[in-house]
Design brief:
The chain is an alpha+beta fold. A hairpin with a 6-residue loop joins strand 1 and strand 2. The radius of gyration is 17 Å and the shape is elongated.
């Protein structure tokens, strides 16, 4: 799907849903870690996203996954 998207542009609804869910999940985990460390708030949040593709046994079937990396600065008061 991503290959087709790169050719024609536009949005893929199913892919957008996965990205939105991943961003919400990574922000939730970041907040949990900050609270566990005693931080009252976080600033300068950065989220990096990468897509990893896998081909199985030279078949036409491919699977892929999306990886999220988030980091920020925690503020203690």
């Amino acid at each position: 799907f991503m290959w087709v998207k790169s050719l024609f542009g536009g949005r893929l609804e199913s892919y957008d849903v996965v990205l939105d869910y991943g961003r919400r999940e990574v922000l939730m985990r970041l907040n949990q870690q900050a609270k566990a460390m005693g931080c009252s708030s976080i600033v300068n949040i950065r989220i990096e996203t990468s897509t990893v593709s896998f081909a199985k046994n030279n078949n036409s079937s491919k699977t892929s996954s999306v990886e999220f990396l988030a980091f920020a600065t925690g503020i203690r008061q």
